[in-house]
């Protein structure tokens, strides 16, 4: 019974998240460990939901196969996690930003049923079923909200894209902000072999597809637009995420530097989380250690308060004076890096 399986998953998630919350409230688990654990829980739930969707749709229409140079073989499917899931920053109420990829190729791409179904039709039904399983209401609640708008071509794109089409899109059509998003992404569930291929494509794109001539301009323009449109702060308040000198400034600085240097120093693009990106840049002597230390300390302070406020269901807005020193230090680094000529 599908509803019973989803309910069991929801109860399992509920219990795991409750344990994390209790440990956080008791002060026994810092925010980074909390985010790591919530991210692990989401990945495990997603893996099980993918298996359930495949059993359901595969049971109806057969499993997808393709014929390529190695003969007829089963098709692999995996999930690429973006945003908070990709960056190990998941919170208690975070949704999952997902892109689904497959490796179907060759002339004969259809299921192994007595009446075969074209693989593209199968992928559509599979993705729709998976999203339904993740978002449906059970007596134990919903598993997760899911956002698939970051897939190639956005809302008009395929729900499940071939890995090679994804690669072509990233090289030929993707905007700078999409490369920033890919830096903050990683393979999170599905076939292990395809997950490895996704990571290879990710690194190839970040090292060789980024348009660096106007990178600074594009990153700065996107960040300014976000400040204008997304801040929730009133006069005398500070939006921890969106205001000048806040979390997003630090994330965008890390992304700018990593994308700028990835071609010559690939390890700076390896990690999908902000702190390890910054530490990698310092280790390679691409950004001064003192600068990275200032940014990491501010980032950790902001995230700790944001985590505490999320436990109390409060918005990420604090009195402006609370982080005056950190804000000015981050804003000064932003100005020196993004607004003043090098």
Detailed description of the structure:
This protein is α+β, with helices and mostly antiparallel strands. The protein folds into two domains: 2-208, Beta Polymerase, domain 2 (2-Layer Sandwich); 215-339, Up-down Bundle (Four Helix Bundle (Hemerythrin (Met), subunit A)). Helices cover 56% and strands 12% of the residues. It has twelve helices and ten strands. It has helices spanning 2-25, 31-61, 83-86, 119-135, 163-172, 176-183, 192-208, 215-230, 247-261, 274-283, 289-311, 324-339, and strands at 64-68, 71-74, 77-82, 96-102, 109-111, 146-147, 160-162, 186-190, 237-239, 317-319. Strands 3, 4, 6, 7 and 8 form a five-stranded mixed beta sheet that branches. Helix 2 (31-61) packs across helix 4 (119-135), helix 8 (215-230) packs antiparallel against helix 9 (247-261) and helix 9 (247-261) packs across helix 10 (274-283). The radius of gyration is 21 Å and the shape is globular. The relative contact order is 0.11. The model has no long low-confidence stretch (mean pLDDT 94).
């Amino acid at each position: 019974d599908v509803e019973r399986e989803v309910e069991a998953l929801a109860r399992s998630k509920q219990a795991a998240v409750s344990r994390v919350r209790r440990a956080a409230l008791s002060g026994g688990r810092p925010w980074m460990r909390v985010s790591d654990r919530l991210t692990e829980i989401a990945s495990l739930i997603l893996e099980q939901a993918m298996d359930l969707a495949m059993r359901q749709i595969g049971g109806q229409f057969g499993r997808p196969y393709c014929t390529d140079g190695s003969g007829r073989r089963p098709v692999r499917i995996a999930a690429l996690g973006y945003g908070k899931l990709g960056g190990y920053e998941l919170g208690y109420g975070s949704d999952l930003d997902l892109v689904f990829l497959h490796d179907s190729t060759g002339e004969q791409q259809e299921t192994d049923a007595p009446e075969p179904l074209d693989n593209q039709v199968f992928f559509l039904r599979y993705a729709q079923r998976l999203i339904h399983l993740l978002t449906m209401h059970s007596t134990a609640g919903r598993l997760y909200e899911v956002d698939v708008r970051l897939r190639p071509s956005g809302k008009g794109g395929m729900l499940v894209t071939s890995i090679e089409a994804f690669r072509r899109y990233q090289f030929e059509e993707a905007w700078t902000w999409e490369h920033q998003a890919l830096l903050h992404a990683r393979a999170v569930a599905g076939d292990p072999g395809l997950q490895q291929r996704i990571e290879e494509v990710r690194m190839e794109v970040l090292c060789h597809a980024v348009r660096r001539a106007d990178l600074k301009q594009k990153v700065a323009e996107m960040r300014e637009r976000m400040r204008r449109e997304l801040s929730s702060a009133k006069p005398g308040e500070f939006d921890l995420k969106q205001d000048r000198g806040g979390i997003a400034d630090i994330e965008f600085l890390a992304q700018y530097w990593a994308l700028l240097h990835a071609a010559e120093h690939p390890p700076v693009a390896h990690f999908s989380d902000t702190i390890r990106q910054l530490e990698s840049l310092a280790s390679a002597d691409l950004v001064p250690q003192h600068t990275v230390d200032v940014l990491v300390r501010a980032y950790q302070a902001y995230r700790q308060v944001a985590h505490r406020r999320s436990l109390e269901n409060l918005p990420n807005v604090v009195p402006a004076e609370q982080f005056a020193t950190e804000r000015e230090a981050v804003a000064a680094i932003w100005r020196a890096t993004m607004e003043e000529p090098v």
